[in-house]
Amino acid sequence: MAVGNTHALEKKSKINGSLADNLVKPVSLAAIPIPIRGSAMYAQGIKQYQQVSTQTSIVDADPHRLVQLLFEGAASRISAAKGHIDRKEYDKKSNQINSAINIIGGLQESLNFDAGELAYNLERLYDYLIRRLFEANIANNIETLDEVNGLLLQIKSAWDEIRDQALQVMADQRPSKIKTV
Description:
Blueprint: H1 3-24, H2 40-60, H3 63-86, H4 90-109, H5 117-139, H6 142-161, H7 163-173
Helix pairs in contact: 3-4, 3-6, 4-5, 5-6
């Protein structure tokens, strides 16, 4: 072998040796970043977990479950807005309320008016909820947020109760598989 190659191997050996020495050194636990409740790192980890959890729920959800997730999302944002009002974090409060308004607007847009009077009643109720959220946002009013959240949870509860019936209707609407002999 050429002398240049031997020199390169010695150099590599020295580098690898120092890397190995560094890898074997004991590491203080203080050097490992452990998320502490309330810290930015902890909050980021929770947020990422929630995003993955939500994305998984959405991918696996049937149409009835998607509506349940929307109700849960709106209620969650209203609750978060209340906390932001308490902490005087008004920009964050506005973002949460606006997100709840968008979710309720999405529920409103998805109404099937062929279903009759119930859909029209829900449309009026969603209009009311959206108006009240705007008012709560302007006045930083927790009581108004509680009112909206209470009504929203009543609608969600009724929606939850019809799950089995809704799944049966969806199953009946699916095209049947053709069996071949």
